[in-house]
Amino acid sequence: MAATNVKIIGAWPSPYAMRPRIALNLKNVDYEYIEETFAPTSELLLKSNPVHKKVPVMIHNDQPICESLVILQYIDEVFTSGSSLLPSDPYDRAIARFWATYIDNTWYSSVLGIVKALIEEEKATTSEGISITAGLALLEKAFEKISKGKGFFGGETIGYVDVALGSCLGWIRVAETLSGSNYIDETITPGLNAWADRFSSDDAVKDLIPDTQMLLGFALRRFGSPAK
């Protein structure tokens, strides 16, 4: 479906900004991508998201929609091409929203926390690492239940929780590189390990996940100590 009236303001290191792009790819919706550099923050972003002044923002028919999970739900409701991101059953839909919220509000902060701590050589890395692995253990169990033996949280196709979690894979790989640990492992989290391979290789996703070394370089610049 061609939709030249759709724009996404994003930033390549942001997992949140990746989400609407994946969703639009899944829905076969054409869009214009605008890379935000924050040097300085563009007038378009300030105008489109005056409250938080952050990416992503989706502009559809000149109307801005902010916050990645809100944008995903909007895309699912407005564009009917492709598979639905959220389940049709109200209970299953509520469960999907719960896990996406858990990823954003609880688990992903542990990933960024250990990346930041490792770069700054702080001693707080152990507790953050435990939080990551404990969270992945919960997500492994959730995957077993929600997927119902199929390839994705969304069943046969990529769904809402898949996009929420899968957009974080680049940062998980950065954390693994810095710590020398495999947080997603075929022994510890076999379901998520196979899922991550399937998700990353999907045509709607594979060109959007940042290169690990590029993302690591960004993390070092963001969290590293100022040059002496």
From TrEMBL:
Q: Which Pfam families match?
A: GST_C_2, GST_N
GST N-terminal domain: from which residue to which, for each copy?
A: 4-83
Could you say which EC number(s) this protein's record lists? Answer: 2.5.1.18
Q: Which PROSITE patterns match?
A: GST_CTER, GST_NTER
**What CDD domains would the database entry show?**
GST_C_Tau (cd03185), GST_N_Tau (cd03058)
- Name the keywords, alphabetized: Cytoplasm, Transferase
Under catalytic activity, the entry for this protein gives: RX + glutathione = an S-substituted glutathione + a halide anion + H(+)
Q: Which Gene3D superfamilies match?
A: 1.20.1050.10, Glutaredoxin
Gene Ontology MF, one: glutathione transferase activity
**Per the record, GO CC terms?**
cytosol
Q: Where is the signal peptide?
A: none
Q: Which domain of life is it from?
A: Eukaryota
Residue ranges of every copy of the GST C-terminal domain listed in the record: 89-218
Q: Where in the cell is it found?
A: Cytoplasm, Cytosol
A biological-process GO annotation: toxin catabolic process
The text of the family note is: Belongs to the GST superfamily. Tau family.
Task: Briefly state the protein's biological role.
Answer: Is involved in the conjugation of reduced glutathione to a wide number of exogenous and endogenous hydrophobic electrophiles.
Its name, as the record gives it, is Glutathione S-transferase
- This protein's species is Thalictrum thalictroides (Rue-anemone)
Q: What is the lineage of its organism?
A: Eukaryota, Viridiplantae, Streptophyta, Embryophyta, Tracheophyta
